[in-house]
């Protein structure tokens, strides 16, 4: 019996070996036992995204016996086998399908792989068919060729300047290279990439605000730029870098411009010429650079217009051998460091009206300074500062005089060279080898007696303090007084009596052009309270000697000026200020000041902190924004 079983088993083994040889089936233990496992897909293909003209692969992994593969695609009505078509399609009947030079016609192609293998009894196997997961091929269009010269405007990049183009609020005329904006423009920064020798005309009409948080400038041209406005105000708000800049020259002929820049307000690699217009430039308080700056031997020429510059580093500066020429217009510069400076170039003043208020140097010239016309005042605040500092020659033209305002020695101090005097003034200019003294306050112009000047009195407001210009401006306008004749007390909290006094004075200055209000009695603030009540600023009494809360002074200030003076420049939804819900009793006043750009909050999240007090130094900055719309702040909550 055992012999018979062994013979039968041997015969079965021989048949299995023969079957394996005939079918090329691997001889496994399962096959020997008559059980072939079913095939299994262990890794399915995945979706692919490829650029137009690119290549990709799809793969599947499976285990089993006698495995075969066939990739299929869906026609929209049925699945059809992919055929090998080198080089575009290869491996259509293998585990990996390869595709090259893929066109857009294959976008959204659906693919799968059909996998077959043997299973069941070894002596009588059957074919098992499996299907992989469906996958999707996404083909993205290749980027169009970027033109050599283009405009980035209105949120669109690489608009070819060789053809006429237009969009919301803007129009480009290719033949004249003229870009025109209207008040419908949506406010994105503008990049004009053109040839360095091209001259582009930029014109605007209406009130337009361009805000730059992306590029180097709110408005930038790679060539030369001619700028003109025909009504309204163009505001260039560039908290990240420059306001208006060009790789070539810039000419401004007309228009009204408010420019705020983190770096330089107007900047060019060549000449900057201002023939007209009303231009207000402000740079960042602590890190801002120059109001107007020219590189690479470029000159700055001012022949007209009204220009106001508040800058940290300096008002006007030219590099290398560039010169500054002022022949007309009105120029006012307030700067922590310097008013006008040159590299190795000259400054010539032959006309116009100039006022400079700086801490260090009024006009600092590495070359020659010539004053043969115009009139002006130069005031500096540091004890060792110079109203005029020329390193070569200082020439004062015939009929012109330079006078001291403060009784100091009549000294203008070039470091080297000579000083030539052509006027009739009998006083002399001196030229020490190492100048240590100089006029801090001077007046120049035709022979005339200088007006009296009262020096800035507050010894506890240093020129380097961030609030110096704000306190000084408010003091000059008659809005604020010190705690004593020489102390402002910038770190003291503002009281309600001081708040109502400020509101009353702002109202009188705005409506009449001057401040005549004086202290009353028996309480010094009685006259201001009466004025405020009579003019609708307040309708109740406060605890006048108590420190004012932020919400409290905002309630008073929000009525200090007519509604027309609080035109909104920021879109701030009700409830957007994190700690001021609309149910807050002073919500209306707080949102009014935020929307007008007078306040922006106590932190980066724009919280108001309505219950806290406010320092006198902080109030000075708010007064500046109340009375000067160009100093107001644009932001988003």
Would you mind describing this structure in some detail?
- There is one protein chain.
- By secondary structure, the chain is α/β, with parallel strands linked by helices.
- The chain folds into four domains: 28-140, Immunoglobulin-like; 144-329; 346-455, no CATH class; 468-631, no CATH class.
- Helices cover 14% and strands 35% of the residues.
- The chain is built from eight helices and 42 strands.
- The longest helix is centred in the N-terminal third of the chain and has 22 residues, at 2-23.
- It is elongated and about 120 Å long.
- It starts with a helix and ends in a 10-residue tail after the last helix.
Give the arrangement of secondary structure elements.
Elements: H1 2-23, H2 29-32, E1 40-43, E2 48-51, E3 56-59, E4 61-63, E5 65-74, E6 79-81, E7 89-90, E8 96-99, E9 109-119, E10 126-131, E11 135-140, E12 150-153, E13 156-160, E14 165-167, E15 170-173, E16 178-181, E17 190-193, E18 199-204, E19 208-211, E20 217-221, E21 224-229, E22 234-238, E23 242-246, E24 250-252, E25 256-261, E26 266-268, E27 272-274, E28 278-283, E29 290-294, E30 300-302, E31 306-311, E32 314-318, E33 324-335, E34 338-342, E35 347-358, E36 361-365, E37 369-380, E38 386-390, E39 394-396, E40 400-404, E41 419-421, E42 441-446, H3 468-476, H4 496-512, H5 526-534, H6 550-557, H7 587-595, H8 616-627
Parallel strand pairs: 2-11, 16-18, 17-20, 18-21, 19-22, 20-23, 21-24, 22-25, 23-26, 24-27, 25-28, 26-29, 27-30, 28-31, 29-32, 30-33, 31-33, 32-34, 33-35, 34-36, 35-37, 36-38, 37-39, 39-41
Antiparallel strand pairs: 1-4, 3-8, 5-6, 5-9, 7-8, 9-10, 9-11, 12-13, 12-17, 14-15, 15-16, 37-42, 40-42
Helix pairs in contact: 3-8, 4-5, 4-6, 6-7
């Amino acid at each position: 019996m055992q012999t018979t079983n062994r013979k039968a088993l041997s015969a079965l083994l021989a048949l299995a070996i023969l079957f394996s040889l005939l079918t090329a089936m691997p001889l496994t233990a399962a096959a020997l036992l008559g059980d072939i496992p079913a095939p299994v897909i262990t890794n399915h293909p995945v979706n692919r995204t490829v650029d137009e003209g690119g290549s990709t692969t799809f793969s599947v992994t499976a285990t089993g016996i006698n495995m075969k593969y066939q990739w299929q695609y869906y026609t929209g009505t049925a699945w059809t086998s992919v055929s090998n078509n080198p080089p575009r399609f290869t491996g259509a009947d293998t585990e990996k399908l390869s595709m090259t030079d893929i066109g857009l016609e294959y976008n959204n192609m659906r693919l799968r792989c059909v996998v077959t293998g043997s299973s069941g009894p070894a002596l009588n196997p059957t074919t098992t068919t499996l299907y992989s997961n469906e996958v999707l091929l996404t083909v993205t269009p290749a980027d169009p060729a970027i033109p050599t010269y283009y405009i980035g405007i209105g949120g669109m990049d690489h608009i070819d300047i060789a053809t006429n183009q237009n969009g919301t609020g803007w129009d480009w005329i290719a033949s004249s290279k003229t870009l025109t904006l209207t008040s419908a423009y949506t406010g994105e920064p503008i990049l004009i990439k053109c040839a360095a020798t091209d001259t582009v005309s930029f014109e605007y009409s209406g009130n337009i605000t361009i805000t730059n948080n992306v590029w180097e400038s709110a408005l930038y041209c790679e060539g030369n730029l001619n700028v003109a406005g025909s009504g309204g105000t163009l505001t260039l708000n560039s908290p990240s870098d420059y306001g208006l800049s060009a790789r070539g020259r810039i000419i401004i002929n007309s228009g009204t411009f408010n420019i705020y820049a983190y770096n330089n307000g107007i900047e060019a690699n060549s000449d900057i010429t201002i023939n007209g217009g009303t231009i207000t430039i402000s740079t960042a308080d602590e890190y801002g650079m120059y109001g107007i700056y020219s590189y690479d031997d470029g000159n700055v020429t001012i022949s007209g217009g009204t220009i106001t510059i508040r800058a940290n580093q300096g008002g006007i500066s030219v590099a290398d051998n560039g010169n500054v020429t002022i022949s007309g217009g009105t120029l006012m510069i307030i700067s922590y460091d310097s008013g006008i400076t040159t590299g190795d170039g000259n400054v010539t003043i032959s006309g116009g009206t100039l006022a400079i208020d700086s801490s260090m140097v009024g006009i600092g010239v590495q070359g020659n300074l010539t004053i043969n016309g115009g009139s002006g005042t130069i005031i500096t605040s540091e004890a060792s500062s110079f109203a005029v500092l020329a390193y070569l020659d200082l020439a004062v033209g015939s009929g012109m005089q330079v006078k001291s305002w403060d009784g100091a020695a009549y000294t203008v101090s070039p470091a080297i060279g000579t000083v030539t005097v052509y006027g009739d003034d009998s006083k002399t200019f001196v030229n020490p080898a190492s100048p240590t003294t100089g006029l801090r306050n001077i007046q120049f112009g035709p022979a005339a007696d200088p007006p009296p000047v009262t020096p800035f009195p507050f010894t506890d407001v240093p020129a380097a303090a961030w609030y110096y210009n704000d306190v000084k401006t408010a003091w000059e306008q008659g809005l604020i007084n010190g705690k004593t004749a020489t102390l402002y007390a910038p770190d003291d909290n503002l009281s309600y009596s001081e708040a109502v006094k400020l509101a009353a004075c702002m109202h009188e200055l705005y409506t009449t052009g001057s401040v005549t209000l004086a202290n009353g009695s028996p309480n010094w603030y009685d006259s201001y309270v009466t004025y405020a009540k009579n003019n609708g600023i307040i309708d109740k009494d406060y605890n006048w000697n108590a420190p004012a809360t932020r919400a409290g002074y905002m309630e008073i200030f929000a009525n200090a000026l007519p509604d027309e003076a609080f035109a909104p420049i920021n879109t701030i939804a009700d409830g957007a200020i994190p700690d001021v819900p609309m149910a807050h009793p002073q919500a209306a006043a707080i949102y009014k000041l935020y929307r007008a750009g007078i306040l922006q909050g106590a932190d980066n999240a724009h919280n108001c902190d309505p219950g806290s007090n406010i320092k006198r130094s902080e109030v000075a900055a708010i007064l500046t924004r109340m009375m000067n719309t160009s100093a107001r702040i644009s932001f988003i909550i």
